[in-house]
Amino acid sequence: MSEADRTRERLIETYRKKARHYDVTSRLYPAPGYPQRSQRLCVVRTLGLREGDTVVDIACGTGLNFPLIEEAIGPGGRIVGVDLTDAMLARAGDRVEANGWGNVSLVQADAAAFDFPADVDAILSTYALTQVPGCAQVIAHGAAALSAGGRWVVLDLKIPDRTPVWLSRLGVAVVPTSASLDEWVMRRPWETIRAAMQDELADPSWAELCFGTAFLAAGSAPKTVADHRGR
């Protein structure tokens, strides 16, 4: 088994164990008591969604973003929820069924290998993409699938700049990593995501949240060829 396959299996096993209580434990991100719903709402607003839009939620988990997206796109829109773990998607399916949403498709897939549908209006990922070893590849594939002017937004965890390693390990102890916590800290995937957004998208933006323990990164697909060449 390759290292990539082993990482994938560790992720699946980790999130299978967490699926049942994920809606509760996810409230610990980025810090206990921090208003996570308002952060998710900020993501949806940053996407600039309109009625009828098609939205891909990468590593959608149990579908916590779905209600906010549905409110913005209406029944004429479409949500594609993608997750690696069957247990997470089962919980997401329960949420979809309970709300009677007929415009949600759930796909079990590795985010780095997911075949994005063409002309997507918006893509988001919340508190998940830093766990994907191929996060830059996910950004690139998504950017290529966006319709002109479509938006890509990532909300995730990071380590504050100039934080000692021992304190970093303590501060992100709740992170369900695919490898060791030390490896996650040393890999600094948030920097990879920031660079990929700058390389692949127009008008990239970056904002740090909760004293630098989280970030909101966003960018748009160029509206014209000229915009693409000049970004």
The largest pleated sheet is described as: 7 strands, mixed
What global shape is seen? globular
Helical content (DSSP H or I, runs of 4+): 40-55%
CATH homology group? Vaccinia Virus protein VP39
Tell me the radius of gyration.
Answer: 17 Å
Number of strands: 7
Order of SSEs, N→C? HHHEHEHEEHEHHHEEH
Number of domains: 1
> Strand share of the residues?
15-25%
> First CA to last CA: what distance?
41 Å
CATH architecture name:
3-Layer(aba) Sandwich
Strand order within the widest beta sheet:
3-2-1-4-5-7-6
How many helices? The count is: 10
Average pLDDT, all residues = 84
Structural class: alpha/beta
Low-confidence stretches: none
Give the CATH topology: Rossmann fold
- State the name of the first-level CATH class: Alpha Beta
Structure in words:
This protein has a single domain (3-230), classed as Vaccinia Virus protein VP39 (Rossmann fold). Strand 1, helix 4 (66-73) and strand 2 form a beta-alpha-beta unit. The radius of gyration is 17 Å and the shape is globular. It has helices spanning 3-18, 22-25, 36-47, 66-73, 86-99, 135-145, 165-171, 181-187, 189-200, 225-230; strands at 54-58, 78-83, 104-108, 120-126, 146-157, 202-209, 214-220. The longest helix has 16 residues, at 3-18. Strands 3-2-1-4-5-7-6 form a 7-stranded mixed beta sheet, sandwiched between helices. It contains 10 helices and 7 strands. By secondary structure, the chain is an alpha/beta fold.
Quick synopsis:
The chain is α/β, with parallel strands linked by helices and 231 residues long.
